[in-house]
TrEMBL record:
GTPase that associates with the 50S ribosomal subunit and may have a role during protein synthesis or ribosome biogenesis. It comes from Salinimonas iocasae. GTP binds at residues 204-211, 229-233, 251-254, 317-320, 343-345. This is GTPase HflX. Pfam families: GTP-bdg_M (PF16360), GTP-bdg_N (PF13167), MMR_HSR1 (PF01926). Mg(2+) binds at S211, T231. HAMAP family: GTPase_HflX (MF_00900). Its cofactor is Mg(2+).
Length: 439
């Protein structure tokens, strides 16, 4: 369908320095992306411009230099660290005589390699089709169907138009299947909400260490590697937190600077786990000199998917790469955790993360002292099953005096489940704790 040069494993990288901050990209990040894609960088060419050239993105002289580098290194793909228009790709391919990929095409290629689940493959294919649908501009004159004369009149549709129609049909088919997946995910989220199980979503820049942290917390075996976009397919696991009970932890795809809009749109079903989360764990590689910039990039994507107002707990990861930085919890003026410093790879500071998670999610805890008479002794087993008993004793009348601490959701469930609600046995309520919870 696409009259394009075949891409290979030997690449010439092109990086342009622009004066405009919004157009700037990092050369080191391009090299990481290329390495993650399994491509060897034969040469790296850099230049500076005030604005992109309309025909080649770079100047005509630099385009000739790129073509010479391709010939010298016998390269079969040129990768730009920027977004190219379809015409710029075509013009560069005609002069370089090899495949030309822009930053978006490179990211899509990495995603195609990483997709493992059926849903992930559909999402990647959708993003790829949306991207290349604008690049169906090759010459198909040899397949032209609009010819005149006896016996030569075709259906009036060029090969290019046929390709576009086939693409539109495939895109519609994938969208329908992804909508079905989205409905299934929504059903799972509704059931978790009915059970009042909180969801915690790991978010962060790609290669910040989210999957390593996920594996440490859940004892899962999610693929984790020191490369960009090691995780593509979302993974959910149940964890147990003191004073909170069960919670769902979600590992999601990493974000990146100037994340292509096609990817954001294609991964809408996956990113919805982030949208619906009760708490976001924003994982940051603090050993990276640009970590503040990457934090801003992640927050921009969160705003784009309407999750920017979610409660965040900042996870300052990879402290093992820094000198004299110890694991700790930073708190705000009200004493609530805002940052946790740890090393997921070395499993240092994980107990502090568990403590911070409990404090963030256990805001709706109730503390009661109950007086339960002997005829209702069956409640003792119910409370022990919930593991909510802080202290117990018996008074002179044989009544069971018990101090309980549990999530308000568990208390409300017991009120609905038991014939005689627990509230009738309340002897003393910890008003201070309740006041803290209300605040």
């Amino acid at each position: 369908m696409f009259d394009r040069y075949e891409a290979g494993e030997q690449a010439v990288l092109v990086h342009v320095n622009f004066a405009d901050e919004n157009s700037k990209e990092e050369l080191a990040e391009l090299e990481l992306l290329v390495s993650s894609a399994g491509v060897n960088a034969a040469d790296v060419l850099t230049t500076s411009r005030s604005a992109p050239h309309a025909k080649y993105f770079v100047g005509s002289g630099k385009a000739e230099e790129i073509a010479a580098a391709v010939k010298a290194h016998d390269a079969n793909v040129v990768i730009f660290n920027h977004a190219l228009s379809p015409s710029q790709e075509r013009n560069l391919e005609s002069i370089c005589r090899c495949r030309v990929l822009d930053r978006t095409g490179l990211i899509l290629d990495i995603f195609a390699q990483r997709a493992r689940t059926h849903e992930g493959k559909l999402q990647v294919e959708l993003a790829q089709l949306r991207h290349i649908s604008t690049r169906l501009i090759r010459g198909w004159t040899h397949l032209e169907r609009q010819k005149g004369g006896i016996g030569l009149r075709g259906p009036g549709e060029t090969q290019l138009e046929t390709d576009r129609r086939l693409l539109r049909g495939r895109i519609k088919s994938i969208i329908r299947r992804l909508e079905k997946v989205q409905r299934q995910r929504e059903q799972g989220r509704r059931s978790r909400k009915r059970a009042e199980i909180p969801t915690v979503s790991l978010v962060g820049y790609t290669n910040a260490g989210k999957s390593t942290l996920f594996n440490q917390i859940t004892d899962a075996h999610v693929y984790a590697a020191d490369q960009l976009f090691a995780t593509l397919d979302p993974t959910l696991r149940k964890i147990e937190l003191q004073d909170v009970g069960p919670a769902i932890l979600a590992d999601t795809v990493g974000f990146i600077r100037h994340l292509p809009h096609d990817l954001v749109a294609a991964f809408k079903a996956t990113l919805q786990e982030t949208q619906e989360a009760d708490l976001l764990l924003h994982v940051v590689d603090v050993s990276d000199a640009r970590y503040r910039e990457t934090m801003d990039e992640v927050n921009e994507v969160l705003d784009e998917i309407e999750a920017g107002d979610k409660q965040q707990l900042l996870i300052c990861n990879k402290i093992d790469n820094l000198e004299e930085v110890k694991p700790r919890i930073d708190r705000d003026d009200e004493g609530m955790p805002i940052r946790v410093w740890l090393s997921a790879r070395e499993a240092v500071g994980l107990e502090l993360l568990s403590e911070a998670l409990t404090e963030c999610l256990a805001r709706n805890m109730v503390d009661y002292t109950l007086r339960i008479p002997p005829e209702h002794s069956h409640l003792r087993g119910v409370l022990f099953d919930l593991n909510c008993i802080a202290e117990e004793s018996y008074d002179t009348n044989g009544d069971w005096m018990v101090e309980v601490r549990m999530p308000a959701t568990d208390w409300n469930k017991l009120e609905k489940r038991l014939d005689k609600g627990l509230s009738e046995f309340v002897e003393y309520e910890d008003t201070v704790a309740q006041h803290d919870n209300d605040n």
